[in-house]
Protein backbone atom coordinates (compact mmCIF):
# COMPACT_ATOMS: atom_id res chain seq x y z
CA UNK A 1 0.00 0.00 0.00
CA UNK A 2 1.02 3.64 -0.55
CA UNK A 3 3.82 2.49 -2.88
CA UNK A 4 3.62 5.61 -5.07
CA UNK A 5 3.69 8.04 -2.13
CA UNK A 6 6.41 6.13 -0.31
CA UNK A 7 8.65 6.14 -3.36
CA UNK A 8 8.09 9.88 -3.73
CA UNK A 9 9.32 10.58 -0.21
CA UNK A 10 12.33 8.31 -0.71
CA UNK A 11 13.25 10.16 -3.92
CA UNK A 12 12.78 13.52 -2.20
CA UNK A 13 15.14 12.52 0.62
CA UNK A 14 17.76 11.46 -1.93
CA UNK A 15 17.63 14.93 -3.50
CA UNK A 16 18.68 16.37 -0.14
CA UNK A 17 21.48 13.87 0.43
CA UNK A 18 24.69 15.56 1.47
CA UNK A 19 22.99 18.87 2.32
CA UNK A 20 23.68 20.35 5.74
CA UNK A 21 20.89 22.95 5.74
CA UNK A 22 17.52 23.46 4.10
CA UNK A 23 17.21 26.41 1.74
CA UNK A 24 14.63 27.59 -0.75
CA UNK A 25 16.86 26.32 -3.56
CA UNK A 26 17.43 22.76 -2.36
CA UNK A 27 14.00 22.16 -0.86
CA UNK A 28 12.07 23.04 -4.03
CA UNK A 29 13.15 19.95 -6.05
CA UNK A 30 12.35 17.72 -3.07
CA UNK A 31 8.89 19.25 -2.66
CA UNK A 32 8.25 18.94 -6.40
CA UNK A 33 8.98 15.22 -6.15
CA UNK A 34 6.59 14.87 -3.23
CA UNK A 35 3.95 16.88 -5.09
CA UNK A 36 4.07 14.59 -8.12
CA UNK A 37 3.83 11.44 -6.01
CA UNK A 38 0.86 12.77 -4.00
CA UNK A 39 -1.03 13.82 -7.12
CA UNK A 40 -0.21 10.52 -8.82
CA UNK A 41 -1.63 8.81 -5.74
CA UNK A 42 -4.93 10.68 -6.32
CA UNK A 43 -4.68 12.84 -3.21
CA UNK A 44 -7.00 15.85 -3.26
CA UNK A 45 -5.31 18.84 -4.95
CA UNK A 46 -6.17 21.24 -2.13
CA UNK A 47 -4.80 18.80 0.44
CA UNK A 48 -1.53 18.48 -1.52
CA UNK A 49 -1.17 22.25 -1.81
CA UNK A 50 -1.69 22.85 1.91
CA UNK A 51 0.63 19.98 2.85
CA UNK A 52 3.52 21.30 0.75
CA UNK A 53 3.05 24.90 1.88
CA UNK A 54 3.13 23.84 5.52
CA UNK A 55 6.29 21.74 5.07
CA UNK A 56 8.03 24.57 3.17
CA UNK A 57 7.09 27.15 5.79
CA UNK A 58 8.34 25.04 8.70
CA UNK A 59 11.49 23.98 6.86
CA UNK A 60 12.59 27.50 6.01
CA UNK A 61 11.44 28.94 9.32
CA UNK A 62 13.62 26.71 11.47
CA UNK A 63 17.31 26.11 11.96
CA UNK A 64 18.45 22.53 11.35
CA UNK A 65 20.30 21.11 14.34
CA UNK A 66 22.81 19.06 12.37
CA UNK A 67 24.64 17.67 15.37
CA UNK A 68 22.85 15.83 18.15
CA UNK A 69 24.04 16.03 21.74
CA UNK A 70 24.12 12.26 22.16
CA UNK A 71 27.11 10.27 20.93
CA UNK A 72 28.04 12.94 18.36
CA UNK A 73 25.30 11.77 16.02
CA UNK A 74 24.77 13.94 12.98
CA UNK A 75 21.35 14.89 11.62
CA UNK A 76 21.26 15.79 7.94
CA UNK A 77 18.98 18.26 6.22
CA UNK A 78 17.25 15.28 4.62
CA UNK A 79 16.54 13.81 8.06
CA UNK A 80 15.02 17.10 9.16
CA UNK A 81 12.91 17.26 6.00
CA UNK A 82 11.54 13.75 6.59
CA UNK A 83 10.75 14.66 10.20
CA UNK A 84 8.73 17.66 9.02
CA UNK A 85 6.93 15.51 6.45
CA UNK A 86 6.15 12.95 9.16
CA UNK A 87 4.56 15.58 11.40
CA UNK A 88 2.42 16.90 8.53
CA UNK A 89 1.41 13.40 7.41
CA UNK A 90 0.39 12.64 10.98
CA UNK A 91 -1.95 15.63 10.99
CA UNK A 92 -3.21 14.74 7.53
CA UNK A 93 -4.15 11.25 8.71
CA UNK A 94 -5.97 12.53 11.78
CA UNK A 95 -3.31 13.02 14.46
CA UNK A 96 -4.48 10.88 17.35
CA UNK A 97 -5.94 7.39 17.07
CA UNK A 98 -9.74 7.43 17.38
CA UNK A 99 -11.75 4.68 19.09
CA UNK A 100 -15.42 3.81 18.72
CA UNK A 101 -17.74 5.74 21.06
CA UNK A 102 -18.86 3.51 23.93
CA UNK A 103 -22.37 3.72 25.41
CA UNK A 104 -22.12 3.78 29.25
CA UNK A 105 -25.84 3.05 29.74
CA UNK A 106 -26.46 0.12 27.44
CA UNK A 107 -25.30 -1.66 24.31
CA UNK A 108 -22.90 0.29 22.10
CA UNK A 109 -24.54 0.56 18.68
CA UNK A 110 -22.51 0.71 15.46
CA UNK A 111 -24.45 1.47 12.27
CA UNK A 112 -22.54 0.50 9.12
CA UNK A 113 -23.44 2.37 5.93
CA UNK A 114 -22.00 2.51 2.44
CA UNK A 115 -22.47 1.73 -1.22
CA UNK A 116 -23.01 -1.74 -2.61
CA UNK A 117 -19.80 -3.72 -3.08
CA UNK A 118 -17.81 -1.85 -0.41
CA UNK A 119 -17.81 -4.93 1.86
CA UNK A 120 -20.22 -3.89 4.63
CA UNK A 121 -21.41 -7.41 5.46
CA UNK A 122 -17.92 -8.90 5.62
CA UNK A 123 -16.59 -5.96 7.61
CA UNK A 124 -19.50 -6.16 10.05
CA UNK A 125 -18.21 -9.64 10.93
CA UNK A 126 -14.58 -8.49 10.93
CA UNK A 127 -15.41 -5.61 13.28
CA UNK A 128 -17.36 -7.90 15.62
CA UNK A 129 -14.43 -10.30 15.75
CA UNK A 130 -11.88 -7.54 16.36
CA UNK A 131 -13.81 -5.85 19.19
CA UNK A 132 -14.70 -9.19 20.74
CA UNK A 133 -11.03 -10.19 20.95
CA UNK A 134 -9.31 -6.85 21.56
CA UNK A 135 -11.84 -5.24 23.91
CA UNK A 136 -13.67 -8.31 25.28
CA UNK A 137 -17.02 -6.99 24.04
CA UNK A 138 -20.05 -9.26 23.55
CA UNK A 139 -21.34 -8.44 20.08
CA UNK A 140 -24.57 -9.06 18.21
CA UNK A 141 -24.70 -8.79 14.43
CA UNK A 142 -27.98 -7.46 13.01
CA UNK A 143 -28.75 -8.34 9.38
CA UNK A 144 -30.75 -5.34 8.14
CA UNK A 145 -29.83 -5.55 4.44
CA UNK A 146 -33.21 -6.68 3.09
CA UNK A 147 -32.55 -6.06 -0.60
CA UNK A 148 -29.41 -7.93 -1.61
CA UNK A 149 -30.10 -11.61 -2.22
CA UNK A 150 -28.63 -13.89 0.46
CA UNK A 151 -27.17 -10.94 2.44
CA UNK A 152 -28.78 -12.18 5.64
CA UNK A 153 -27.62 -15.74 5.05
CA UNK A 154 -24.08 -14.50 4.37
CA UNK A 155 -24.00 -12.69 7.72
CA UNK A 156 -25.30 -15.81 9.51
CA UNK A 157 -22.50 -17.90 8.01
CA UNK A 158 -19.89 -15.30 8.98
CA UNK A 159 -21.35 -15.07 12.48
CA UNK A 160 -21.00 -18.83 12.95
CA UNK A 161 -17.37 -18.70 11.85
CA UNK A 162 -16.45 -16.09 14.45
CA UNK A 163 -18.78 -17.34 17.20
CA UNK A 164 -21.04 -14.26 17.23
CA UNK A 165 -24.88 -14.43 17.24
CA UNK A 166 -26.79 -12.92 14.30
CA UNK A 167 -30.27 -11.40 14.56
CA UNK A 168 -32.76 -10.90 11.76
CA UNK A 169 -36.51 -11.17 11.08
CA UNK A 170 -38.57 -12.59 8.25
CA UNK A 171 -39.59 -9.16 7.04
CA UNK A 172 -38.37 -6.56 4.56
CA UNK A 173 -38.71 -3.73 7.09
CA UNK A 174 -35.07 -2.85 7.83
CA UNK A 175 -36.07 -0.35 10.53
CA UNK A 176 -38.06 -3.00 12.41
CA UNK A 177 -35.16 -5.46 12.20
CA UNK A 178 -32.74 -2.89 13.62
CA UNK A 179 -35.11 -1.91 16.46
CA UNK A 180 -35.89 -5.49 17.44
CA UNK A 181 -32.22 -6.38 17.19
CA UNK A 182 -31.31 -3.73 19.75
CA UNK A 183 -34.07 -4.99 22.09
CA UNK A 184 -32.74 -8.53 21.72
CA UNK A 185 -29.22 -7.37 22.65
CA UNK A 186 -30.54 -5.74 25.84
CA UNK A 187 -32.42 -8.91 26.80
CA UNK A 188 -29.33 -11.06 26.24
CA UNK A 189 -27.02 -8.63 28.06
CA UNK A 190 -24.90 -8.08 24.96
CA UNK A 191 -22.90 -4.85 24.97
CA UNK A 192 -22.23 -4.32 21.24
CA UNK A 193 -24.70 -4.18 18.35
CA UNK A 194 -23.38 -3.94 14.78
CA UNK A 195 -26.06 -3.26 12.19
CA UNK A 196 -25.41 -4.19 8.56
CA UNK A 197 -27.52 -2.03 6.24
CA UNK A 198 -28.33 -2.16 2.53
CA UNK A 199 -26.27 -0.38 -0.09
CA UNK A 200 -26.86 0.94 -3.58
CA UNK A 201 -24.71 1.30 -6.66
CA UNK A 202 -25.03 5.06 -6.20
CA UNK A 203 -26.37 7.38 -3.54
CA UNK A 204 -30.12 7.90 -3.89
CA UNK A 205 -33.00 9.23 -1.80
CA UNK A 206 -34.42 5.78 -0.98
CA UNK A 207 -31.12 4.61 0.48
CA UNK A 208 -30.56 7.74 2.54
CA UNK A 209 -34.13 7.84 3.87
CA UNK A 210 -33.89 4.24 5.09
CA UNK A 211 -30.58 4.87 6.86
CA UNK A 212 -31.98 8.03 8.46
CA UNK A 213 -35.00 6.09 9.72
CA UNK A 214 -32.81 3.32 11.16
CA UNK A 215 -30.66 5.93 12.86
CA UNK A 216 -33.70 7.53 14.50
CA UNK A 217 -34.96 4.11 15.64
CA UNK A 218 -31.74 2.88 17.33
CA UNK A 219 -29.85 6.13 18.14
CA UNK A 220 -26.40 4.70 17.34
CA UNK A 221 -23.31 6.07 19.04
CA UNK A 222 -21.29 5.26 15.91
CA UNK A 223 -22.21 5.70 12.24
CA UNK A 224 -19.31 4.25 10.26
CA UNK A 225 -18.97 4.50 6.50
CA UNK A 226 -17.50 1.37 4.90
CA UNK A 227 -15.74 2.46 1.74
CA UNK A 228 -13.39 0.98 -0.85
CA UNK A 229 -9.96 2.66 -0.73
CA UNK A 230 -9.30 1.77 -4.36
CA UNK A 231 -11.87 4.21 -5.75
CA UNK A 232 -9.60 7.14 -4.86
CA UNK A 233 -11.18 10.59 -4.70
CA UNK A 234 -14.63 9.09 -5.30
CA UNK A 235 -14.25 7.73 -1.77
CA UNK A 236 -13.88 11.27 -0.45
CA UNK A 237 -16.91 12.52 -2.39
CA UNK A 238 -18.98 9.56 -1.20
CA UNK A 239 -17.93 10.19 2.40
CA UNK A 240 -18.96 13.84 2.11
CA UNK A 241 -22.38 12.89 0.70
CA UNK A 242 -23.10 10.38 3.48
CA UNK A 243 -21.86 12.76 6.15
CA UNK A 244 -24.22 15.49 4.98
CA UNK A 245 -27.25 13.22 5.47
CA UNK A 246 -26.42 10.96 8.42
CA UNK A 247 -23.52 12.71 10.22
CA UNK A 248 -20.81 10.08 10.14
CA UNK A 249 -18.64 9.47 13.20
CA UNK A 250 -15.88 7.68 11.30
CA UNK A 251 -14.74 5.58 8.37
CA UNK A 252 -13.73 1.97 7.74
CA UNK A 253 -11.43 1.93 4.71
CA UNK A 254 -11.41 -1.44 2.93
CA UNK A 255 -8.98 -3.01 0.45
CA UNK A 256 -6.16 -0.80 1.65
CA UNK A 257 -3.72 -3.63 1.01
CA UNK A 258 -4.55 -3.50 -2.72
CA UNK A 259 -4.31 0.29 -3.04
CA UNK A 260 -0.82 1.34 -4.13
CA UNK A 261 -1.90 4.98 -4.27
CA UNK A 262 -3.52 5.78 -0.93
CA UNK A 263 -5.25 8.97 -2.08
CA UNK A 264 -8.44 8.23 -0.17
CA UNK A 265 -6.67 7.58 3.14
CA UNK A 266 -4.62 10.77 2.80
CA UNK A 267 -7.60 12.96 1.89
CA UNK A 268 -10.65 11.81 3.88
CA UNK A 269 -9.81 13.37 7.24
CA UNK A 270 -8.74 16.71 5.79
CA UNK A 271 -11.69 17.04 3.41
CA UNK A 272 -14.52 15.59 5.51
CA UNK A 273 -13.23 16.04 9.04
CA UNK A 274 -14.06 12.37 9.74
CA UNK A 275 -11.39 10.05 11.09
CA UNK A 276 -10.49 6.61 9.78
CA UNK A 277 -11.08 4.14 12.61
CA UNK A 278 -10.34 0.81 10.94
CA UNK A 279 -8.67 -0.46 7.78
CA UNK A 280 -9.32 -3.69 5.93
CA UNK A 281 -6.00 -5.17 4.78
CA UNK A 282 -7.06 -8.55 3.39
CA UNK A 283 -9.99 -10.84 2.76
CA UNK A 284 -9.67 -13.08 5.85
CA UNK A 285 -11.87 -12.26 8.84
CA UNK A 286 -8.84 -11.40 10.97
CA UNK A 287 -7.53 -8.86 8.46
CA UNK A 288 -9.03 -5.73 10.01
CA UNK A 289 -6.78 -3.32 11.88
CA UNK A 290 -7.34 -0.35 14.12
CA UNK A 291 -6.08 2.68 12.22
CA UNK A 292 -3.08 4.30 13.85
CA UNK A 293 -2.13 7.58 12.13
CA UNK A 294 1.41 7.55 13.52
CA UNK A 295 2.05 4.00 12.36
CA UNK A 296 0.69 4.75 8.91
CA UNK A 297 2.76 7.94 8.63
CA UNK A 298 5.99 6.10 9.45
CA UNK A 299 5.13 3.31 7.00
CA UNK A 300 4.52 5.82 4.23
CA UNK A 301 7.94 7.32 4.92
CA UNK A 302 9.57 3.87 4.82
CA UNK A 303 10.35 3.73 8.54
CA UNK A 304 8.03 0.82 9.32
CA UNK A 305 5.52 0.51 12.14
CA UNK A 306 7.12 -1.38 15.01
CA UNK A 307 4.17 -0.75 17.36
CA UNK A 308 1.75 -2.20 14.82
CA UNK A 309 4.09 -5.13 14.23
CA UNK A 310 4.24 -5.92 17.95
CA UNK A 311 0.44 -5.74 18.15
CA UNK A 312 0.23 -8.26 15.32
CA UNK A 313 2.82 -10.39 17.10
CA UNK A 314 0.93 -10.36 20.41
CA UNK A 315 -2.28 -11.45 18.68
CA UNK A 316 -0.67 -14.24 16.68
CA UNK A 317 1.77 -15.71 19.20
CA UNK A 318 0.90 -17.87 22.16
CA UNK A 319 2.75 -16.07 24.97
CA UNK A 320 3.33 -19.19 27.07
CA UNK A 321 4.61 -21.14 24.09
CA UNK A 322 6.82 -18.21 23.07
CA UNK A 323 8.24 -18.03 26.60
CA UNK A 324 9.01 -21.74 26.57
CA UNK A 325 10.67 -21.49 23.16
CA UNK A 326 12.72 -18.49 24.31
CA UNK A 327 13.86 -20.36 27.40
CA UNK A 328 14.86 -23.40 25.35
CA UNK A 329 16.63 -21.09 22.90
CA UNK A 330 18.70 -19.52 25.67
CA UNK A 331 19.58 -22.97 27.01
CA UNK A 332 20.73 -24.17 23.60
CA UNK A 333 17.89 -26.71 23.38
CA UNK A 334 16.10 -25.08 20.45
CA UNK A 335 14.88 -27.79 18.05
CA UNK A 336 12.91 -28.08 14.81
CA UNK A 337 9.58 -28.25 16.66
CA UNK A 338 10.34 -24.85 18.18
CA UNK A 339 11.38 -23.59 14.76
CA UNK A 340 8.12 -24.86 13.22
CA UNK A 341 6.13 -23.08 15.93
CA UNK A 342 8.00 -19.88 15.08
CA UNK A 343 7.08 -20.26 11.41
CA UNK A 344 3.43 -20.91 12.19
CA UNK A 345 3.28 -17.86 14.44
CA UNK A 346 4.70 -15.64 11.72
CA UNK A 347 2.22 -17.06 9.20
CA UNK A 348 -0.65 -16.09 11.52
CA UNK A 349 0.56 -12.49 11.45
CA UNK A 350 -0.37 -12.20 7.78
CA UNK A 351 1.49 -12.03 4.47
CA UNK A 352 5.26 -11.80 4.88
CA UNK A 353 5.28 -8.71 2.66
CA UNK A 354 3.01 -6.90 5.16
CA UNK A 355 5.23 -7.93 8.06
CA UNK A 356 8.34 -6.61 6.31
CA UNK A 357 6.57 -3.32 5.48
CA UNK A 358 6.11 -2.72 9.22
CA UNK A 359 9.81 -3.14 10.01
CA UNK A 360 12.47 -0.43 9.60
CA UNK A 361 13.90 -2.72 6.92
CA UNK A 362 11.08 -1.58 4.62
CA UNK A 363 12.78 1.73 3.92
CA UNK A 364 15.78 -0.08 2.40
CA UNK A 365 13.66 -2.08 -0.05
CA UNK A 366 12.04 -1.04 -3.28
CA UNK A 367 8.90 -2.54 -4.76
CA UNK A 368 10.90 -5.01 -6.84
CA UNK A 369 12.53 -6.35 -3.67
CA UNK A 370 9.17 -6.81 -1.97
CA UNK A 371 7.72 -8.58 -4.99
CA UNK A 372 10.38 -11.27 -4.52
CA UNK A 373 9.01 -12.13 -1.08
CA UNK A 374 7.21 -15.45 -1.48
CA UNK A 375 4.95 -16.70 1.33
CA UNK A 376 4.93 -20.12 -0.31
CA UNK A 377 8.55 -20.55 0.77
CA UNK A 378 7.34 -20.70 4.38
CA UNK A 379 5.03 -23.55 3.39
CA UNK A 380 7.88 -25.39 1.65
CA UNK A 381 10.11 -25.08 4.71
CA UNK A 382 7.28 -26.32 6.94
CA UNK A 383 6.85 -29.31 4.60
CA UNK A 384 10.51 -30.25 5.08
CA UNK A 385 10.18 -30.05 8.87
CA UNK A 386 6.98 -32.12 8.79
CA UNK A 387 8.85 -34.78 6.80
CA UNK A 388 11.30 -35.27 9.66
CA UNK A 389 10.76 -37.93 12.32
CA UNK A 390 10.10 -36.90 15.91
CA UNK A 391 13.63 -38.02 16.84
CA UNK A 392 15.16 -35.94 14.02
CA UNK A 393 13.26 -32.83 15.06
CA UNK A 394 14.44 -33.19 18.64
CA UNK A 395 18.02 -34.06 17.63
CA UNK A 396 18.98 -32.00 14.55
CA UNK A 397 22.54 -33.35 14.78
CA UNK A 398 21.20 -36.57 13.25
CA UNK A 399 20.70 -34.66 10.00
CA UNK A 400 24.24 -33.44 9.56
CA UNK A 401 25.56 -34.96 6.31
CA UNK A 402 28.80 -36.17 7.91
CA UNK A 403 27.78 -39.82 7.90
CA UNK A 404 26.02 -42.11 5.41
CA UNK A 405 23.12 -42.30 7.85
CA UNK A 406 22.82 -38.48 7.91
CA UNK A 407 22.86 -38.27 4.12
CA UNK A 408 20.25 -41.03 3.93
CA UNK A 409 17.99 -39.09 6.27
CA UNK A 410 18.34 -35.93 4.15
CA UNK A 411 17.40 -37.89 1.03
CA UNK A 412 14.31 -39.34 2.72
CA UNK A 413 13.16 -35.90 3.94
CA UNK A 414 13.68 -34.44 0.46
CA UNK A 415 11.51 -37.14 -1.11
CA UNK A 416 8.81 -36.74 1.54
CA UNK A 417 8.58 -32.95 1.15
CA UNK A 418 8.99 -32.74 -2.63
CA UNK A 419 12.20 -30.71 -2.26
CA UNK A 420 15.77 -31.35 -3.31
CA UNK A 421 18.40 -32.82 -1.04
CA UNK A 422 20.28 -29.51 -1.27
CA UNK A 423 17.20 -27.62 0.00
CA UNK A 424 17.03 -29.84 3.07
CA UNK A 425 20.77 -29.65 3.64
CA UNK A 426 20.70 -25.84 3.41
CA UNK A 427 17.82 -25.67 5.87
CA UNK A 428 19.64 -27.85 8.39
CA UNK A 429 22.86 -25.83 8.04
CA UNK A 430 21.05 -22.53 8.57
CA UNK A 431 19.13 -23.92 11.49
CA UNK A 432 22.36 -25.08 13.13
CA UNK A 433 23.94 -21.67 12.58
CA UNK A 434 20.94 -20.00 14.21
CA UNK A 435 20.99 -22.46 17.12
CA UNK A 436 24.70 -21.83 17.61
CA UNK A 437 24.11 -18.10 17.80
CA UNK A 438 21.25 -18.54 20.25
CA UNK A 439 23.33 -20.72 22.57
CA UNK A 440 25.66 -17.77 23.13
CA UNK A 441 22.87 -15.88 24.89
CA UNK A 442 23.04 -18.21 27.87
CA UNK A 443 26.66 -17.24 28.54
CA UNK A 444 28.92 -16.94 25.49
CA UNK A 445 29.76 -13.40 24.54
CA UNK A 446 27.46 -12.17 27.31
CA UNK A 447 29.83 -13.76 29.79
CA UNK A 448 32.75 -11.63 28.64
CA UNK A 449 33.92 -8.37 30.11
CA UNK A 450 30.61 -6.59 29.52
CA UNK A 451 28.72 -9.45 31.12
CA UNK A 452 30.65 -8.97 34.37
CA UNK A 453 29.32 -5.44 34.77
CA UNK A 454 25.96 -5.48 36.62
CA UNK A 455 23.12 -4.82 34.21
CA UNK A 456 25.31 -4.94 31.11
CA UNK A 457 24.96 -8.63 30.27
CA UNK A 458 21.53 -8.03 28.79
CA UNK A 459 22.82 -5.19 26.65
CA UNK A 460 25.55 -7.40 25.25
CA UNK A 461 22.96 -10.04 24.39
CA UNK A 462 20.93 -7.43 22.58
CA UNK A 463 24.02 -6.47 20.60
CA UNK A 464 24.45 -10.11 19.58
CA UNK A 465 20.79 -10.28 18.60
CA UNK A 466 21.13 -7.13 16.52
CA UNK A 467 24.16 -8.59 14.74
CA UNK A 468 22.21 -11.71 13.88
CA UNK A 469 19.15 -9.73 12.78
CA UNK A 470 21.23 -7.71 10.34
CA UNK A 471 22.04 -10.84 8.45
CA UNK A 472 19.11 -13.09 9.20
CA UNK A 473 16.15 -10.82 8.58
CA UNK A 474 13.14 -11.64 10.73
CA UNK A 475 14.31 -13.61 13.74
CA UNK A 476 16.37 -16.17 11.88
CA UNK A 477 14.09 -16.51 8.87
CA UNK A 478 16.78 -15.08 6.64
CA UNK A 479 18.29 -17.55 4.28
CA UNK A 480 15.37 -19.93 4.06
CA UNK A 481 15.55 -21.55 0.62
CA UNK A 482 14.57 -19.08 -2.06
CA UNK A 483 14.70 -16.02 0.22
CA UNK A 484 18.41 -15.27 0.07
CA UNK A 485 17.98 -12.84 -2.82
CA UNK A 486 16.00 -10.37 -0.73
CA UNK A 487 18.24 -7.61 0.64
CA UNK A 488 18.62 -7.94 4.40
CA UNK A 489 17.32 -11.50 4.40
CA UNK A 490 20.30 -13.31 2.91
CA UNK A 491 21.11 -16.72 4.33
CA UNK A 492 24.07 -17.66 6.47
CA UNK A 493 25.81 -20.04 4.08
CA UNK A 494 27.17 -19.05 0.72
CA UNK A 495 26.79 -15.30 0.94
CA UNK A 496 29.13 -13.24 -1.14
CA UNK A 497 32.32 -11.69 0.14
CA UNK A 498 33.01 -14.33 2.75
CA UNK A 499 30.17 -13.07 4.89
CA UNK A 500 27.44 -15.32 6.14
CA UNK A 501 24.14 -13.60 6.89
CA UNK A 502 25.91 -10.36 7.90
CA UNK A 503 28.57 -12.20 9.98
CA UNK A 504 32.14 -12.21 8.80
CA UNK A 505 34.38 -15.27 9.01
CA UNK A 506 36.09 -13.52 11.93
CA UNK A 507 32.71 -13.21 13.68
CA UNK A 508 32.06 -16.92 13.25
CA UNK A 509 35.55 -17.77 14.44
CA UNK A 510 34.93 -15.72 17.58
CA UNK A 511 31.59 -17.48 18.07
CA UNK A 512 33.26 -20.88 17.85
CA UNK A 513 36.07 -19.77 20.16
CA UNK A 514 33.59 -18.55 22.77
CA UNK A 515 31.53 -21.71 22.42
CA UNK A 516 34.63 -23.84 23.00
CA UNK A 517 35.64 -21.68 25.94
CA UNK A 518 32.20 -22.10 27.46
CA UNK A 519 32.44 -25.89 27.21
CA UNK A 520 35.89 -25.88 28.79
CA UNK A 521 34.69 -23.71 31.69
CA UNK A 522 31.77 -26.05 32.21
CA UNK A 523 34.12 -29.05 32.33
CA UNK A 524 36.41 -27.23 34.76
CA UNK A 525 33.50 -26.44 37.11
CA UNK A 526 32.38 -30.07 36.99
CA UNK A 527 35.94 -31.23 37.76
CA UNK A 528 36.22 -28.84 40.72
CA UNK A 529 32.98 -30.17 42.17
CA UNK A 530 34.50 -33.65 42.22
Characterise the protein shown here.
The chain has 530 residues and is an alpha/beta fold. The chain has helices at 3-15, 24-40, 45-60, 77-92, 120-134, 151-162, 174-187, 205-218, 233-246, 263-272, 293-300, 306-316, 319-330, 336-348, 352-357, 367-371, 376-386, 390-394, 404-417, 421-439, 457-472, 505-529, and strands at residues 108-113, 139-144, 166-167, 192-197, 222-228, 250-254, 276-280, 288-290. The radius of gyration is 27 Å and the shape is globular.
Question: Could you tell me the number of beta strands?
Answer: 8
CATH class label of the largest domain: Mainly Alpha
What level of helicity do the residues show? 40-55%
Number of H/I helices: 22
Q: SSE order, as H and E? A: HHHHEHEHEHEHEHEHEEHHHHHHHHHHHH
The amount of beta strand, in percent, is 5-15%
The CATH superfamily title of the largest domain: Signal recognition particle, SRP54 subunit, M-domain
CATH architecture of the largest domain: Orthogonal Bundle
Number of domains: 3
The order of strands across the largest sheet is 3-2-4-1-5-6-7-8
The global form is globular
Low-confidence stretches: 66-72, 441-505
Mean pLDDT, nearest integer? 76
- Gap between N and C termini, in Å? 64 Å
Q: Which topology of the largest domain does CATH recognise?
A: 434 Repressor (Amino-terminal Domain)
Radius of gyration, taken over Cα atoms and rounded to an integer in Å: 27 Å
* Estimated structural class: alpha/beta
> Biggest β-sheet, characterized?
8 strands, mixed
